[in-house]
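Fold it.
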Amino acid sequence: MRREWEPEELIACWTLVDDDWRLVSNKAGATRLGFSLILKYFELEGQFPRHASDVPRAAVEYVAGQVKVDPNEFTGYDWSGRSIERHRAQIRKALDRHPDKLAHLGPVGDFRSLLKSAR
């Protein structure tokens, strides 16, 4: 994931849309921000971030403004345990991207090229 983003790129790639809002509507604080960020990251990269540092700071600030959560709360997002596993499962289900359905695509790079060609 690249680190530098122009404002129009942030808008195009990191803006929450209708279906996204339905997914984050029942979440608050660090959970709302963290879930929103891993959702958009997954849409862009075809995989989940492994650590908070994988997510560009510009994206954290931009998405935090959308969900009305202080960007510093992202440090409070739980990166281990059942919560993040549940969040990943919710995202995969919402995007209809279950791991068993992706096995035929090969390496992540193939998946990224598939996503790019679909846009």
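The chain has a mean pLDDT of 87.
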